[in-house]
Amino acid sequence: MIIRVRDFGVGIPGSHLASVFNLFEQSDSARALGKGGLGIGLALARQLVHMHGGRIGATSPGPGLGSEFIVALPRGRDEHAAPAPQPNEADDDVWTPLRRRVLVADDNVDAAEMLAVLFEQLECEVRTVHDGDAAIREAERFRPEVVILDIGMPGMDGYEVCRQIRREPWGQSMLIVALTGWGNDSDRRRSLEAGFDHHFVKPLDTNALIRRILHQ
After folding, report:
1. pTM beyond 0.85, yes or no
2. Range(s) of the domain holding residue 118
3. Count: domains in the chain
4. Distances in Å between the alpha carbon of 130 and those of 51, 107, 147, 148, 155?
5. CA–CA separation, 4 vs 57, rounded Å?
6. 20 falls within a domain
7. 20 to 30 A from 127, CA-CA: which of 66, 82, 92, 174?
8. 192: Cβ contacts below 8 Å, ≥ 6 apart
9. Using one digit for the tens of pLDDT, what is the confidence trace for 154-201?
């Protein structure tokens, strides 16, 4: 079954078509509208479509010329039909259940909650907090296997949160991931020195994050 949704809005530059389904991704034209979007709707749409065994894609003639989104979903299963091919493990579009305890710390409440939804769909147990002090308390109480830390939180930033967690015996084995808008060499070096295992720059490549967690 094919579903097409077409609009006549701001359109998508060709350079953004490959990344438009990434979490937190927004084109310059979308940001210019100033309506407070977080760039998470299409990432969630892709995940929901993939959970149903389908595919989603986007096309656009360019900025100001609208967009078309195409969803392909399998029809009801035919007991006489040949088995569906299994996805290749290297396929970027395949999301494997993680089944981890995950702590998400981000002062942007909507962004934290959306990440929580995504991890819950991957069969994770998730907690969310919105400042550094709460992140440390919840890490000690919840003992997550994975911690996603926004670096730019007010008060105690993600660097200090990571350092304090790493000082504790219960924090030594946690996988701690920095999520930030800062991505130059000095930022990555600071993350490594603070004790982060990985450094991801917004807009978040969710497939890359999932692969890192799976292969850790």
Report:
1. no
2. 101-215
3. 2
4. 29, 4, 13, 11, 11
5. 10
6. yes
7. 92
8. 199
9. 889 999 999 999 999 999 999 999 999 888 999 999 999 999 999 999
